[in-house]
Q: What sequence folds into this?
């Protein structure tokens, strides 16, 4: 078979980015973030980097010395551990004590921030749905929920109520957000739709073949906006009910796209 | 601008290779080796890795622990230093004390070998020009010349004469090749075309805008095969003269393609 002797997407000048995790084969950042970078005209690739937990602390500081490394994305199980690599943490990373992106700044130092929550906010922005002044109910105060609470708090909602089956966890998250964003009206509370404008699911309930919903309901108010952070399936049982009831819905895949856009902004800000 | 939200040449499963050097922007391996790997059906990329000399010894052993790293290519100034990373050196690497490729074997150890010379031999093989039984004159006993001497010696030429302006260097190379390949008839000697079938240039004379030739001659015997390791320009003053005289010529670019093919064999041998 005759084939071209060069590919057109790589050269010695290409800026290299990586996603660091364990396991790594399931990640989507290589194809999606590379596409976002190249569509903006950057000569850059993001490659998977499978690093074992025992190697992380010795490898990562060395990796950051690679001169043409533009930035890193962190996934399970490294979002908390990666904070130690940053010279400076962004406002949302400081609230949740975790980062999923590290970018080189103009002084060759590394800035860390978490973008899961910003992806959710960006998805709303792209759809033209304001969070400002809204009464928001967030279900789930784990990793994704924490990042979403931190990001939504900066959007000045009328209120943000956080529910988690683990009450201590939701209280602790609400307190951390309030410390960082004193103007925000954030509290831990019961799961209810009374007086709520926006419902955000950040639990894994409804993922893959799970037929359950994060809230017990047979119908939802037509004016409610319903968001689900779950990416697979694209339409979770909660979103399916919301669509049947005429609600506006925002999907996990939109959050993922929003997050990618914000991460690429961050990588190339050179701030 | 609307753009596809994924590229098709990367995923979490893609095997990662790197070329390590300083500087790095001029290297061609990313586009050429990636093309060779993908044309053979491998899901793999080779990215540039700009590592400074002060970082090499601490970074490289850590990098080799990355689980999805398939192999590394080494360029200036690391071909000699990289030997220390290999558990096992190939026969040509042992002669020249340098490697330009490191591959993971089935036992997760790292094998090192140098392919500059094998690229030259592969170029001859692809053109159907035997080196076996031929009287070969090699000009230049530096890095490229050493690797070419080591590779040609294994092809059982009738004789291999090595000339270098630095006589001690050509003698030392001839001795090293003889120790490793006792059957080979290798010697350091004067630069002559008398009784020579194949002339190999491994000096930089004739590179870029250099109008000189590595041998003083106004004509070359029509039966001579002339090879030049120089890649830029494709047709050096020596090759231009050889073509005017009706000689068969083999170009540096053919050596580069041959080397890439052999390196990819090596990366995926899993021996």
A:
């Amino acid at each position: 078979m005759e084939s071209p002797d060069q590919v057109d997407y790589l050269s010695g000048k290409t800026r290299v980015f990586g996603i660091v995790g364990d396991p790594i084969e399931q990640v989507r950042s290589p194809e999606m973030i590379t596409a976002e970078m190249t569509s903006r005209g950057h000569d850059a690739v993001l490659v998977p980097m499978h690093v074992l937990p025992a190697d992380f602390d010795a490898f990562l500081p060395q990796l950051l010395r690679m001169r043409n490394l533009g930035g890193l994305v962190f996934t399970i199980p490294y979002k908390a551990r990666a904070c130690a690599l940053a010279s400076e943490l962004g406002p949302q990373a400081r609230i949740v004590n975790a980062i999923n992106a590290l970018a080189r700044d103009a002084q060759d130092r590394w800035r860390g921030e978490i973008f899961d929550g910003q992806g959710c906010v960006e998805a709303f922005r792209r759809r033209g749905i304001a969070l400002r002044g809204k009464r928001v109910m967030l279900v789930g105060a784990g990793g994704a929920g924490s990042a979403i609470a931190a990001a939504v708090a900066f959007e000045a909602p009328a209120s943000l109520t956080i529910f988690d089956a683990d009450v201590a966890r939701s209280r602790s998250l609400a307190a951390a957000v309030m410390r960082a964003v004193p103007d925000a009206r954030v509290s831990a509370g019961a799961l209810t739709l009374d007086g709520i404008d926006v419902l955000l699911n950040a639990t894994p309930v409804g993922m893959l073949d799970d037929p359950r919903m994060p809230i017990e309901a047979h119908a939802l108010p037509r004016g409610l906006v319903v968001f689900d952070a779950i990416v697979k399936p694209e339409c979770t049982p909660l979103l399916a009910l919301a669509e049947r009831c005429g609600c506006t819905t925002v999907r996990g895949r939109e959050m993922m796209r929003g997050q990618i856009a914000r991460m690429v902004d961050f990588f190339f800000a050179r701030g």
Q: What stands out?
A: Residues 15-115+257-267 of chain B form a domain with the Rossmann fold fold (CATH 3.40.50.10860). The two ends of chain B are 47 Å apart (CA to CA). DSSP finds eight helices and twelve strands in chain B. Chain B touches chain A through 47 residues (CB under 8 Å).
